[in-house]
């Protein structure tokens, strides 16, 4: 029996949400407990194109089967327990199509870890105004001005910035840019958690 992918995604989403409601709080390592205590939830969201599964299974392109579509999975960061998922038949869609759903689902004071597919000033402002938090990689080439340097050394820099100073729609709220030198490469991370004591 073949179940259409969209129906399967709806059923799986329902099962995952019921399991999350019934699931008890699992223990996490001591070093992570301090982080978890500071947020109502700590989630990771990531999207995948299901067509890649078809390629990995070496299903012939001549077959008239539909493309797999795209799925967005949200899991608890410390337990990897699924929280929810979304599905679209459009395998070319960008992760940003789920920004509003993700912002609505994340509880107040929750933290979501996402990749750069969610990099959007509008979404960052939406989360900040709802008292919800994000952590993502910083997109190279994004214009910004430093508002305040919180701390710095030879291998790190922690600063509050204002993004989009050359855009007609700048980010309305300040964000925090943390840069870390690992080997010879600087890695940069962006969050709206402005206090180093919180994150």
UniProtKB/TrEMBL annotation:
Superkingdom of the source species: Bacteria
A GO molecular-function descriptor: DNA binding
Gene Ontology biological process terms in this record: DNA transposition
Domain Transposase IS4-like: 58-157
Protein name, entry field: Transposase
Annotated organism of origin: Aphanizomenon flos-aquae WA102
């Amino acid at each position: 029996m073949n179940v259409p992918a969209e129906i399967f995604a709806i059923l799986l989403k329902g099962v995952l949400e019921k399991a999350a409601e019934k699931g008890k709080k699992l223990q996490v390592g001591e070093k992570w407990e301090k982080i978890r205590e500071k947020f109502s939830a700590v989630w990771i969201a990531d999207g995948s194109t299901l067509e890649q599964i078809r390629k990995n299974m070496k299903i012939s392109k001549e077959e008239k089967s539909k493309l797999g579509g795209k799925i967005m999975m949200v899991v608890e960061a410390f337990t990897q327990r699924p929280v929810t998922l979304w599905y679209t038949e459009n395998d070319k869609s960008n992760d940003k199509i789920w920004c509003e759903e993700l912002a609505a689902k994340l509880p107040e004071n929750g933290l979501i870890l996402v990749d750069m597919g969610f990099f959007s000033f509008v979404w960052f402002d939406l989360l900040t105004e709802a008292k919800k938090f994000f952590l993502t990689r910083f997109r190279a080439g994004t214009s910004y001005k430093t508002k305040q340097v919180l701390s710095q050394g030879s291998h790190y820099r922690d600063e509050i910035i204002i993004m989009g100073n050359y855009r007609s729609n700048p980010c309305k709220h300040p964000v925090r840019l943390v840069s870390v030198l690992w080997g010879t490469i600087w890695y940069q991370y962006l969050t709206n958690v402005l206090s180093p004591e919180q994150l």
